[in-house]
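In this supplementary section we document a worked example of the pipeline. Step one takes a protein sequence of length 355 as its only input; no multiple sequence alignment statistics are reported here. Step two produces a three-dimensional model, which step three serialises into structure tokens for compact storage. The input and output of this example are shown verbatim.
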Amino acid sequence: MIKYLGSKRRLVPVLGELFEASGARTALDLFTGTTRVAQEFKRLGGIVTAVDTARYAEVFARCYVVADADEVDRSEVAGALQHLADLPGEPGYFTDTFCERSRFFQPFNGARVDAIRSALNADFAGSPMFPILLTSLIEAADRVDSTTGQQMAYLKAWAPRSSRGLELRMPDLLAGTGTAVRGDAVTLAGELGPFDIAYLDPPYNQHRYLTNYHVWETLVAWDAPEHYGVACKRIDCRDEATKSVFNRKREMPGALAATVAGLQADVVVLSHNDESWIGLDELVEICRPRGEVVVLSFDSKRYVGAQIGIHSPAGERVGEVSHLRNVEYMLVAGDPARVRRMVEPFAGSPALNET
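The serialised model returned by step three reads:
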């Protein structure tokens, strides 16, 4: 799985416990991102719908949520991966943009990405294997990038991992199937249900996933867009239509409240943290119309960029680290009996905060 700002990797086991305790069979992951949470729900037997606006998130969802491991011919996928891995590098847009004009990847790996991605369109377009193979390529590129895990910038000196060769691996597919939807959460929230449980992990502030992961967006779209700035971001990152309401301070609270209210789900689990524009008390009030609300809180290490970001492009220290840890909140809202059953495993834990 790719490095991802806001990833709930550490909290996935908690979400799995909540899902199992809820007795849910159907689940919605409304801001799915890398699909970590959707995968956990599916692994536990859930029928999952994964939603996001990002093209790369839709590809991951088609690979990990929609594809059924029991129906996929692994030998066929392995053969396709070997075919792609054997292709000689052929520098193109990706190499020029992300290896020479910027320094996200070393050129020898960029040339291989160019060759493999072009072959995917030529040889596998329309194939059920396409999202699986493209996921393998994105994850392979992520393992040899030269960033701290987001693509607003790259490291001044090459990261040691960037010198390794690109390696395509078989994604860890799961049995069962689900649904992948690309679209706006506010618009879709009331149209997708009903679900036993809905999980929301919306953006908390001004940081935009399109700009943070614009390289993956371009790798999926494969549209050779115009770009701007040192990081060679896609020109459509400047388009107002690509900006989420969740990245606008004045509009975010209303959008979140409307999204939560519109969900057709018995239980809603909402992730947020203490660096959000919305305080915990307001989050509780947004969730309260759905029933009883219980808050779980988890001390968490902040993203590594919080430390690297105090240095100038020349590597000089220009600021101080404000704090290295934050608090991740998980609000569970719904039928009182069901909510209490879900949080019972955390009884006596400092994570549990009754409201």
